Amino acid sequence: MQVTESALPAAAPEMRRPGGWGDAARSNIAGLLLANIVFIIAFALLASGFTSPINVYSLSRSIGIDGVIGLAMMTVIITGGLNLALGAIGVCGAMVVGWALQNAGLPIPAALLLGLFAGGALGAINGLIVVLTRLHSFVVTLATMSVFFGVMVLLSGAAGFNALPASLLAFGRLRLFHMVSPLLLVMAVVALLLFYLYRFTAVGREMLAAGANPVAAKLTGLPVERLFVYSHALCGAVGAVAGVMVSLRNGAIVPSMAGPLGADWLLPAFLAPVLGGTALTGGEVSVLGAVLGTVFVEVITSGLYMLQIGEFWIQTALGIALLAAILLERARAGAMLSRSLRG
Amino acid sequence: MSRLRNLLRADWLGLLLLVLGGSAALAVVRPEFLTPYNIDVILVSFCLTVVYALGQGVIIAIGHMNLALGAIGCLVAIAFGGAMEVWHLPIWLAAVFGLLLGTICGFINGWLTWRSGLTSFIITLATLSIFKGTALGITQAQPFYRIPDAVKAFGSVRWGPLPAMLLLALPIVIATGIFLARMIPGRQMLAYGGNPNAAELSGISRARVVLLAHTLSGVLAAVAGMMTVARLQNATPAIGDEWLIASFAAPVIGGAVLTGGHLSVVGTCLGVLVVALINQALVMLAVDPFYVQVLLGLLILGAVGLNRLREARLGTTAPVRLS
Amino acid sequence: MSDTFLEVRGASKAFVGVQALDGVDLAVGSGQIHALLGENGAGKSTLIKILTGVHQPDAGTVRLRGVPVAFRTPRDAISAGIGAVHQERNLITRFSIAENITLESPPSWLGLFDADAAARATRRWLNLLALEIDPATPVARLSVAQMQLVEIAKALSLESRILVLDEPTSSLTPHETARLFAVLRRLAGDGVGILFVSHKLEEVFDLCSHVTVLRDGRNACGSRPLAGMTRADVVRLMIGREEASFTAPPAPARAAAPALELRSVSTTFGHCDLSLRAYAGEVLGLYGLVGAGRSELARAVIGVAGITAGEVLIDGRPAAIRNVTQAVRRFGLGYVSEDRKGEGLILQHSVAANIAATVWHRLRRVLGFVSDAMQAATAAPFVRALDIRTPSLAQRAGNLSGGNQQKVSVAKWLVAGSRILFIDEPTVGIDIRSKADLHDLVLRLARQGTAVIVISSDMPELVALSDRIAVMKGFRIVDTFDNTRDYGQASQRIMHAIHG
Amino acid sequence: QAKDVRVALIPGGPHPYFANWEQGAKDAKRDFGIAAADYKVPAKWELGLQNQLIENLSAQGYNAFLIFPGDPVATNGPMQDLASAGIPSIATAGCTKDPTPALFCFGTDVGRSAYLGTQHLLQAMGNKGTIVHFTGNLVDPNTELRMKAVERAVAETHGGVKLLQTIADIDRTPQEADEKINALLAARGKEIDGIITTAWLPSVSAATALRRIGDKRIKMVAIDHDQVVLDAIKDGYLLGTMLQNPYGQAYIGSYVMEEIVGHGCKVNAGAPFKKNAYTTRFVDSGTAFAGPNDVAHYQDVMKTVTKDLMATFKATYLTCS
Ligand SMILES: Nc1ncnc2c1ncn2[C@@H]1O[C@H](COP(=O)(O)OP(=O)(O)OP(=O)(O)O)[C@@H](O)[C@H]1O
Ligand SMILES: Nc1ncnc2c1ncn2[C@@H]1O[C@H](COP(=O)(O)OP(=O)(O)OP(=O)(O)O)[C@@H](O)[C@H]1O
Ligand SMILES: [Mg+2]
Ligand SMILES: [Mg+2]
Known about the structure:
The complex is a heterotetramer of chains A (343), B (323), C (500) and D (321).
Chain B: H1 2-9, H2 13-29, H3 36-61, H4 69-85, H5 91-116, H6 120-139, H7 149-156, E1 158-159, E2 162-163, H8 166-181, H9 184-194, H10 196-201, H11 206-232, H12 243-253, H13 265-284, H14 289-314
Chain C: E1 4-15, E2 18-29, E3 33-38, H1 44-51, E4 59-64, E5 67-69, H2 74-79, E6 82-85, H3 97-101, E7 108-109, E8 112-113, H4 115-128, H5 144-157, E9 162-166, H6 174-189, E10 193-197, H7 201-207, E11 210-215, E12 218-225, H8 231-239, E13 260-267, E14 274-278, E15 283-287, H9 294-301, E16 307-314, E17 317-318, H10 324-329, E18 333-336, H11 340-344, H12 351-356, H13 360-363, H14 372-385, H15 402-416, E19 420-424, H16 432-447, E20 451-455, H17 459-465, E21 468-473, E22 476-482, H18 487-499
Parallel strand pairs in C: 3-10, 3-11, 6-9, 9-10, 15-20, 15-21, 18-19, 19-20
Antiparallel strand pairs in C: 1-2, 1-4, 4-5, 7-8, 11-12, 13-14, 13-16, 16-17, 21-22
Chain D: E1 6-10, H1 19-32, E2 36-39, H2 47-59, E3 64-67, H3 76-84, E4 89-92, E5 105-107, H4 110-124, E6 129-134, H5 141-155, E7 161-167, H6 174-188, E8 194-197, H7 200-213, E9 219-223, H8 227-234, E10 240-243, H9 246-263, E11 266-267, E12 282-284, E13 288-290, H10 298-317, E14 318-319
Parallel strand pairs in D: 1-2, 1-3, 3-4, 4-5, 5-12, 6-7, 6-8, 8-9, 9-10
Antiparallel strand pairs in D: 10-13, 11-14
The structure holds adenosine-5'-triphosphate (2 copies) and magnesium ion (2 copies).
């Protein structure tokens, strides 16, 4: 290195470390946490059965699944892109696992690995097309969503796999402490791995930089194209995990698990990361935020069902609750900010 | 001379060539393609789609999104149907009521986005739930069937290959085109979409732009919803369910940038036509149902890819992209 | 003070972690050209943003002709007669020049935008600044300097009573600057009050009649006449001490093979048959008027564009550079972009991340592990070395003042330890103290064995820095000579090369 | 001794087909004194949402479930959860695939319905000509059963009738069905003599399309009881429709739950269950062809079918101590 310490000016600016409670309280993580606590307490008081083991179990399972779906989408949102084919890839990944277990007779770990690999490969195909054609990932994945799903239905004849190994199904049905689904732990593991990736590894930081400003990243010497392909592949692999998790809840692997073309996953996939503070323009990521966002959505969904609002009106109530919560959070963050500036 | 050059550089020229080439090829393979009834079918599909695609387009222009587009269309459709069936309103009054409702819904989206400063994604996702839930709650998932014959006729009548709905869709397309290309508020929307900071520094009011775009989007969704009622001859709460992806696809295929600042109305129309044509081809060529999805995807990718190739040749891509 | 147009009293403004302004006073009279000076981060732009309605002050008042005003949006400021060129580029790149310039009040006919009228109105302002481009050209096609001129034209077109210019000349060559000043003097003669920010003190003494200096968000001097003040006085007010005099150490003996050699190179950008040598230990200056193709040359060499003919040699060996990653990681090239916001920095990421981005792949341990602490440890020495003013290493780069941002984009190449470094407009927007530091740094870098190629439109800077100077014109090199650091001699030779 | 029986009837999503469930459940509640028989609709037609709703309702104390399987295989999952909590469920209006925790499957034999419908069509065509088939979504395995049934009926004419084309995946949104059906009619309308539809939305769209063309040459048999379909039959555009029996499914299903949960009855393992592609424990809820004469009182047709089933149901399928 050219600049030696001795050549440095004596007066060094003070290097204040970031963080501290002030920063944390202002971030929307704190807001989400608060909203979660408020809603959980409210529902526990108002809706009988909300805290029953069976509901907590069901809640933990939904959080696990939708959390992983959201995390999967997050990995491409950071590139400033998106992946409409996420659901299709998730289903394809799960179907590969089903095939490997039931038709090829592979042992469970090998089958899961194969599924992960298949999801990653399909994601990588998206990434490669995006990078090579420079089309927006919206158009690319719109098309591949149709292609992936179509090929899957073609190959499988739309028939699912329902003779999964008992041990795998038993894992899916496990009740930890009588009320927690192991799928929640799966999500925790995925979240931790992603947190590690983006926070503590070179390639994760490079992905973020490439997503934030591809031109600057490229001029800095980062292999932007390759990083984009990695991001899409990662999305596919995590999507496959989600596919397997949904299958575990269903007790079978079926092509319809994510709706037509896998499109049912799209809203939860975007909702959680965006609520959690991941910018759709790319380059920023909040794993914890995405997880808290999922918890938030699942809690109000479950709670409103528990309140037994008229069937068809439940969606309206959900929308209003979501809107009220984010607007209140917004007001709170604003108040915190102005207080900290005055103080 | 420079006009010709501009035309050659237009990002939708490739799509135009594709539409023309594809139609010609289809007409050769299947002469029935050129029958008036068949052209009518494509144009009907075009009319229904292009209106809500532009409804999304004006939002994309300012760099926002409107996930509630289909829900607004749905709510307006059943309000329109319900107003006529339950309240026995005359058609014009029901239509005005529908338009008003769409305007209000769009305005609510805009107002919430503007006041909260949150991304329109979240806001419209929440209002999507609210609007759709209300539509389902009112109807209990049952369609309104008693649509007056005049409304049904509007969705069915055609003169040769030209459907009556063109009378509504075409003026809307042209008006939107002029609005964005030449009118001051339209230009301000595009300026804001291109660079919100710069636009605000130039005195363009964020509130105005955001409210205008979202309200416009609500109005267009309302029109599309009521047109769909006329076509389907009933007002079912399933209207609008498939709008979300399609409404983004057409403008984006037509060259719009999701980050805002650019929307080609001609491109959007061609985007709608390309997809309609591909769907038509898949039906006409009697493709095995199991292959339809695969081919649909590949054809879309192929069409957009070809267009992109032409752009790359001409070097019309934005220079900010490296190399 | 009867003719005081614009008066600020006790303006304060805080951002998270920073008190940007603390009770600042300012008074600009009619027909006055008033300089607003200060180091990077002193609060100049913040003050200007308060005057233009971008920020609202926490405390203090703004008066226009004695009437208190409170601008809530930029629109309020514009309608109150304040026109501004902001430090950051603020153009709609997809719009044409004409559309940008008429954005505030577009000419219309029956509610339709009148493109012809806009072009006519625009051409007038472009002519004034001698910018000969078709007003229908999209801004995206312009070079940085051209964009800056367009922004100035846009501010002029408002014909406002108060004109605020935040570093309007940062990317301009002396020729264009002179043109601009002529316009400004005429406006002042017509009674327009002008607030002018620049880090080029020569310009300030040339143009301005009054001066206000800020230091750390406070007034180092109130509005006072510039007449009678010397450059040293102003510098002392700005940095609290004398300007360090700067002498370049002698160049070392030249290595046998140049670190970078271009032999009859042609590029897809349009350079053709271009030859150039840059030696380790030396600073090579690249001069040319706006649009000469200097930036493009640098970008071609680091692999952004294709080299279509000729040879690139590094340390005497032919090097086939296929992409930027390879250029940076394998051949040790580096490029500091002239457009730091667009291409130099990742604005929403931290200072530390921006600086360490070039070396993450080298820092990593098992499992690709790179901690914040490792990143901070890598970045911190350079933050100190360049005296980058930031509340913390975790501060978003976008929140730094313009000058400090520029230092960050230089720092990352120091971290990377590049052996061949292109620096495009190294001191755009950098205050005089940092400029001296930076010059010192560039030379030190060179003397320690890096081949530095400086592209600068600031001729005095280029002459002071370079060991050799190459002059470009129309994508060719028209002259190369050894620089004796004698300004008169060098400038004559350069001008001769370009115009003769 | 009777335990409070709380039955939840859960369709796959909001859909007019299930509207009669609500009535059936209400009537059963009144007739048999069931504590609760509530119709609960998932807000959207999504498998995940349905599963969640089921879990939610069980947490709310519902102890008997009539479920339309969002997926024949995947719905076994939540049913298994219910079963392990001792809560019985019946796959209603559609079957779950064996091995299934559902007590039995109570619904329309879709293959048979499609087959009978096609036969009606072919007979009306004199077993000559060309037909097209509009059906539901490919991910729904029922679709393939229907496609096979139609093919079988066509094959039985030994070349007299040709199946020109099948269009699938158009039971998602009305607009999509409308576009594709009209596209086909525009392109090949002249070649087509008959239309069989085996899903709700295609039935509605095709009926509307025929009315729009005003063409009574093309003969058509639809499925279900949408108002548009019934009107088209009345006006002579359609031969008739294959009615299913959602009312009876809900009415009898709720009754069975009252007997089982409330009075300790068991499903008779040796009962004469039918077999279909999914399960060996299938009970046909009845299907009936409704032509122009039946349209006005189609609900009576369903109620008659229900009454007949009801008369022998307990004796045939349940054993009560
Ligand atoms: N939006 C912001 N958020 C947080 N801090 C800010 C923001 N804008 C400016 N600052 C801080 O306020 C201080 C003053 O910045 P300002 O841009 O006014 O300086 P300046 O005098 O214009 O410097 P330069 O000559 O480098 O342009 C700096 O410390 C800067 O980091
Ligand atoms: N993106 C672009 N698209 C088309 N032309 C461009 C683009 N960028 C620059 N040019 C043109 O290329 C020429 C050279 O660019 P540029 O001005 O950056 O060269 P330069 O010598 O580095 O000058 P300076 O850095 O002083 O502006 C100019 O004529 C400019 O108009
Ligand atoms: Mg500044
Ligand atoms: Mg340059």
